[in-house]
Amino acid sequence: MPWKESTTMSQRVxxxxxxxxxxxNMRALCREYRITPRTGYKWIKRYKEHGETGLxxxxxxxxxxxxxxxxxxxxxxxxxxxxxxxxxxxxxxWKLIQEKLQPIPSASTITAILHRHEKIxxxxxxxxxxxxxxxxxxxxxxxxxxxxxxxxxxxxGTCHPLTILDDHSRFLVGxxxxxxxxxxxxxxxxxxxxxxxxxxxxxxMDNGSVWQGYxxxxxxxxxxxxxxVVHGRPYHPQTQGKEERLHRTLKEELLQQxxxxxxxxxxxxxxxxRTLYNYERPHEAxxxxxxxxxxxxxxxxxxxxxxxxxxESSDILRKTDIYGRIQFQAKRFHVGKAFRLSExxxxxxxxxxxxxxxxxxxxxxxxxxxxxxx
Length: 374
What we know:
single chain; alpha+beta; Nucleotidyltransferase, domain 5; 4-stranded antiparallel β-sheet; 11 helices; 12 strands; 17% strand
């Protein structure tokens, strides 16, 4: 008879009891139970030595496995994981290389160790498809800026983390704990960041209410400093792919690991984590190097003063009124209230009657002589 999985123990007990009877034909009995004589004698021996307990399956893992990681290696892997709970195999391996541990296990071996010790979950093993589509060639050519939602603090109130990331190096030039998503607060944060790292050439942000379009005081201030402002397409977060990835890392490595009592407490912990992110944490897109290895401050120093605005000699200049409107060809056009009482330049396009409107280096509007705006 076959040994079905559900009755394995009972079949083994029956076999041994029958085999121990006098005048039993072992070969015939083994054929009846569909096992080899060698297996039959093995179960008899175990039964005589340990009783029915000896009939249970034994652990098949070898007592000595030459390919198994040594306790020292496993302890080192678990120590790094304890310090950095969101790090996977590749980042932990990079850290062990820095510590000159020998021999260095592969990233897959480290991942296996984490699984074996139940330190990693299935969702951590899933590969995230990269969503960034471009990369600047030099630092400070483009900074990406966004808010990472908000969270409740233990003592009441909410914290809105503001992040500013250099596109080329992934260097986190700013991580600020804000009480709300307000233009005035963002401007104050940017002033301190500009003082430390200088001015970028361009800044990319989404279409949030803080900097929506080009018609805000914050955008006016950035443009007046000589920074070109770029907005992502609505409902296309992939435009700010690096910011999206940063926010996921920030959530996994800090926000889900800590409790925050106040904005002061938030900022102190933000500062510690930003130092780790910039100077210690390896980045896979940078060849497992930290962002600081690829970053250097901008040569454009922030003085707090606006540079002189100069337009091209061929530009058509107009001054906006208090409502952000201009008069041109006996028609009135609205170009943005944020630019009220400012001089702007009109430049013709390749289409007759269509003009682009610039404030300093920034295109702020396009007007058509075929359309009349009140």
